[in-house]
Amino acid sequence: MADITSQIPASARSALGSGPRGPKPRRRLSPGNIMLYGTLFVVSVYYLLPLWVMIMTSLKGMPEIRMGNIFAPPVEVTFQPWVKAWSEACTGLNCDGLSRGFWNSVQILIPSVFFSIIVASINGYALVNWRFKGSDIFFTILIFGSFIPYQIMLYPIVILLREMGIYGTLWGLVLVHTIFGMPILTLLFRNYFSSLPEELFKAARVDGAGFWGIYFRIMLPMSLPIFVVAIILQVTGIWNDFLFGVVYTKPELYPMTVQLNNIVNSVQGVKEYNVNMAATLLTGLVPLIVYFASGKLFVRGIAAGAVKG
Questions:
Q1: Which residues pair with 249 in a beta bridge?
Q2: Residue 95 half-sphere exposure, CB side, CA atoms within 13 Å?
Q3: Partner residues linked to 82 by β-bridges
Q4: 99-305, what's its fold?
Q5: Per-residue buried b or exposed e for 163-185, using 16+ beta carbons within 10 Å of the residue's own CB
Q6: In angstroms, rounded to a whole number, what is the distance separating the alpha carbons of residues 180 and 116?
C-alpha cells in the first residue's frame, strides 16, 4: 500500500511538521473567567435567595417559622399554606382565597393580550408596508403616548368608561389594557416588519395579493419570535398590574394582584407568613411559566424587533 504522506506536497508536509498553528487555547480558569463567573454567581445568589426563602417559608408551619431560621429547609413539609392561600384566605369581605381573583385575572388577560397584539401587529404592518399620508405623524403620536404617566389619565379614563357604561366591569379593564399596550407593541412590530425582506412584499403585490392576504399568508408565518415577545410583555404587564385593577373594577371582580395585596396587608388576626408567601408564589406563577416556556424565542424576538429601526 502506497505511503499517503508521499502524495502530500512538500510545502504542506513542512507546515504539518512545524506543529499546530493559530492562537493559543485560552485557559478555562483564567483570571478573567474567574471574575466573570464569580460575578454571575454572586448576582444569581442575590436574586435567587429571596425566592428560596419564599418557597421554604411557604412549606413550613407557623411554629417552625417562629423559630427564626428563615433559610433552613422545613423540618416537616406542609402544603396547608398553599391550600389556604388558594381557597380559604380572606381577601376582604370574602374568604375564598385567591381562586376567584385567579379566574378574574384569566378573563382579563386572554382578551387583553389577544386584542392588543392583533391590533398592534396590524398597525406595525401598515406603517411599514402600506404607508399612508400622515403615517409618520400618526406613529409619532402613538409612541408619545407610551411616555405619558398612567396616573395622569386615571380620572379621565374613569369618566370615559362611565359614559360608555362599562366602568367597574371586566370589559372596561380589558379596553384599558388594550389601549395602554398599543404604543410599545406597535413599535416592536413596526421594527420587526421593517427588518423582513421588502422583496417578499413586492412579489406578493405583483401576484395580486392584497392587504389581508399579505398579512395572513406572509407576515404572520414569519413573525413568531416577535409575537412571543409581545405575548410575554403583555402577559407579564397585565397579570402583574395592580393600579388599573383596583381603580377600574369592583371588589367581586378584583384581579389576583389586588387580592394578594389584601391578604398580605391584612391587619386582623395572626400574621401568617407562610400563607402570604404561598399566595405571592401563586400570583407570580403564570408569567413565570410563560417566560420559561418561550425564553429562547423571547431573546430572538427582542433582538429582531427592538434593535432595528
A1: 168
A2: 6
A3: none
A4: MetI-like fold (1.10.3720)
A5: eeebbbbbebbbbbbbbbbbbbb
A6: 9
Q: How many CB atoms lie within 10 A of CB 274?
A: 24
In the chain, residues under CATH classification 1.10.3720.10 are 99-305
Could you tell me how many residues make up the chain? 309
Burial of 47 (0-12, 13-18, 19+ CB in 10 A): exposed
Instruction: Select from 295, 292, 290 the least CA-distant residue to 106.
Output: 290
Three-state SS letters, 15-80 = HHHCCCCCCCCCCCCCHHHHHHHHHHHHHHHHHHHHHHHHHHHHCCCHHHHCCCCCCCCCCCCCCH
Determine contact, residues 188/226, Cβ cutoff 8 Å.
yes
Cα gap 263→275, rounded to integer Å: 9
Measured between alpha carbons, how far is 294 from 286 in angstroms, rounded to an integer?
A: 13
Question: Looking at residue 309, what is its pLDDT?
Answer: 44
Give 48-96 pLDDT, tens digit per residue: 999 999 999 999 988 888 888 888 888 888 999 999 999 888 877 778 8
Question: Helices 256-264 and 273-283 meet at what angle, rounded to 10?
Answer: 170
Q: What pTM was computed for the model?
A: 0.79
